[in-house]
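Weekly structure sync, notes
Attendees: PL (lead), two postdocs, one rotation student
Agenda item 3: pending single-chain targets
PL asked that the sequence for the first pending target be pasted directly into the notes so everyone works from the same version. It is reproduced below exactly as submitted, 372 residues in total.
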Amino acid sequence: MDFARLVTPDGQHALAEARQLLGKDRLAAITALRERFDPGLAADALSQAALRERAVAKFGEGAWGMYFTAAGLEQATRPIVAARRAERLGASRNVVDLGCGIGSDLMHLGGTGIERDPDTAKCAELNVPAARVIPGDAQDFDLSTVDTVFCDPARRSGGKRVFNPRDYSPPWDWVVSLPERVPRTVLKLAPGIDQSLLPPGCELELVSVDGDVVEAAAWCGPLARVPRRATVIRKGVAHELAGTGTRRAPVGEPRRYVYDPDGAVVRAHLVAEFASTVDGVLGDPSIAYVYSSIYVENAFSRAFEIDEIMPFSLKRLRAALRARDVGRLEILKRGSAVDVETLRRELKLGGTNAASLMLTRIAGDPVAVILR
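Predicted structure, written out during the meeting:
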């Protein structure tokens, strides 16, 4: 993509027109743009407008003034998460962002950004004009010039997501060694990171935004405060739960209410810490549903009142739901091998009421739990 042309007056006009054409068939849109602009600029403007439209979900209306690559948008940090991280690091620190992407963290961190992909580096330069952006390999940067490192290794290759940390760029062995050279290091990681690979003594923070687990961050050296932290952001407000990550919740009989902990709580291994806040127990030691006799409003879970618990049986479940005239059914599951969509078809519900259903195990036995 030719970003140099997109920032010219012609490019800005092309971007504005492309935005207006986004609802149309792509062929019709590109044909309309080519009537006013050369084919290369028309194609770039339409592609960039489409990326901006996707970016609105993450960046709000400000996305229409930003520049993106597809991979850069996919990995970009949400503004509320980046702002909280920068606040914790402190604005006065001399920081380098290794793998700065399109600049979503750099906007809040300031300092210097390094980005290997030339197009993505150009986006960061345009999105954060006050920062210094260096196109190049993070491994070549002189770390002796900074006192704080933020590293967001690339987790996509060839347009596909990379799941094995050893395939990250920069390489994982280099990334995980950063705290040895610069103790004040933060690593942004995938939520599913194998926690045994983390630098020793770090704090692992799992972050969710409005129910979606969006990232993990390893806070190293003097930045580590607790072994594990879950940061749950709902409607712009952040809530934190911290603990060891090794504590076990008590196991007991189901009670009147069941709590479904937020994914950040589960991935941070803080279900026991959460259970203690609602005087709760697990129905099965390996499944993160928490049962309690009391209802406690909280930001770390969804809560339901239990209507009925039954051994899992399609025939019995169908009869129970039809008796309640259920037609709209939310299905949650943990520890169940049942395929949700297949079950939904087999239930053949046609009622007028809505209900929730939980498929899980209690004391090792598969059960269906009808919820209110």
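Discussion points:
- The longest strand covers residues 301-311.
- The chain is about 30% helix and 25% strand.
Action: rotation student to compare against the earlier draft before next sync.
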